[in-house]
């Protein structure tokens, strides 16, 4: 576990299953990371755009879309900013 004077990396977890989010958050917080979570792609995108995390963990099957498409969009554009009216 990092010492209290070290700057923590921020991780966003986007998943719609509370039990999984709780489990992942518990482990990451134990290791000293700051963790934020969202249950949908839309809420996750808003969170990522606002907080600029160091890492984003995205579930593939979300209620409002496919998390792998979100990853591909980021990889293609290098940005979480809106690129069109569809997101």
Defining traits:
two-stranded antiparallel ribbon, disordered C terminus, single chain, 87 residues, Rossmann fold, alpha/beta, globular
Class derived from helix and strand content: alpha/beta
Question: Which quaternary structure do these chains form?
Answer: single chain
CATH 2nd-level architecture of the domain at 10-66: 3-Layer(aba) Sandwich
Cα Rg: 14 Å
User: What fraction strand?
Assistant: 15-25%
Walk me through this protein's architecture:
This protein has a domain at 10-66: 3-Layer(aba) Sandwich (Rossmann fold), CATH 3.40.50. A hairpin with a 2-residue loop joins β4 (61-62) and β5. It starts with 9 loop residues before the first strand and ends in a 10-residue tail after the last helix. It is globular and about 35 Å long. It has 3 helices and 5 strands, in the order βαβαβββα. It is 40% helix and 21% strand. With 87 residues, the chain is of the alpha/beta class. The chain has a 3-stranded parallel beta sheet with strand order 2-1-3.
List the helices and strands and how they pair.
Layout (H helix, E strand, L loop, with lengths): L9 E5 L3 H13 L3 E5 L2 H11 L3 E4 L2 E2 L2 E2 H11 L10
Parallel strand pairs: 1-2, 1-3
Antiparallel strand pairs: 4-5
What's this model, at a glance?
The chain is α/β, with parallel strands linked by helices and 87 residues long.
């Amino acid at each position: 576990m990092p010492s209290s004077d070290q700057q923590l990396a921020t991780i966003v977890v986007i998943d719609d299953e509370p039990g999984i989010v709780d489990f992942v958050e518990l482990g990451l917080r134990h290791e000293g990371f700051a963790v934020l979570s969202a249950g949908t792609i839309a809420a996750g995108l808003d969170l990522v755009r606002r907080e600029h995390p160091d890492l984003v963990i995205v579930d593939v099957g979300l209620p409002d879309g496919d998390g792998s498409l979100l990853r591909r969009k980021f990889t293609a554009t290098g940005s979480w900013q809106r690129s069109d009216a569809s997101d």
